[in-house]
Amino acid sequence: MPSIDVCFSPELLHLYDLKGKAVVAVDILRATSTMVTAFAEGAANIFPVMELEECRGFSERGCLTAAERNGIKAEGFDLGNSPFGYMGGHVQGRDIAITTTNGTRAIRLSEAAEEIVVGSFLNLQTVADHLAELGLDVLVVCAGWKGQFNLEDTLFAGALVERLQDSFSSENDSALAAVYLYQTAKADMVAFLRQSSHVRRLEHLEIHKDIEFCLRHDVYNVLPVWRHDRLVDLRVEELER
Ligand code: 3SL
């Protein structure tokens, strides 16, 4: 039986051997929720990059550029990091380069893995089905906040472990803790997260609707996976084959 484990921060990645594993990179508020939404809205490829300048350079390749730092859209970029900014048809068929404070970093630091999947509550079941099909050992990599633990990514990890509990073993306390937390929170996650650091940070920016949206389960059948230098939606690739 394959295993599922949880890494609470990219700063802890050195403790794990990613070779041969599937990583699920997650930044619920809001990077991975936003990427999933962008694919659901028809984006072609997403290039997650770590630095603002590198991201800006992608405009010469015809990409839309998206950047967030400390919760705020960076100046001079086409898009920010709100899922609602990707709705309405303007990302359909477009390539997007994106850099965010923590989410894009979690993805790029996981490149040694066999497979990287981008997870969010919005595509939770699609991710779970893909992992069950792959049958690889899984590590959920929580983006956290600037190296520190956060609640919302851990809740996603717990939800995923719970959905996979019949076909995956989980021996580590991190997976167990994530499930306990999710079971405590799931009846009302918005209320549970009210005192969390990032929700307080985002509420200060008055983006409550982003928080509520990013906590919705199974809204999209979208499966962003890392291929060479970019994310593609595997569901679209399979349909085109
Ligand atoms: O840290 C990140 O990658 C962002 O998702 C943070 S924010 O939700 O845009 O504030």
From TrEMBL:
The entry's keywords: Hydrolase, Magnesium
Family from the record: Belongs to the ComB family.
Family matches, as Pfam families: 2-ph_phosp
Record-listed E.C. numbers: 3.1.3.71
Protein name stated in the entry: Probable 2-phosphosulfolactate phosphatase
Domain of life: Bacteria
InterPro entries per UniProt: ComB-like (IPR005238), ComB-like_sf (IPR036702)
Enzyme class: hydrolase
Keyword Magnesium among record annotations: yes
Cofactor(s) for this UniProt protein: Mg(2+)
Reaction it catalyzes: (2R)-O-phospho-3-sulfolactate + H2O = (2R)-3-sulfolactate + phosphate
GO molecular function: 2-phosphosulfolactate phosphatase activity; magnesium ion binding; sulfopyruvate decarboxylase activity
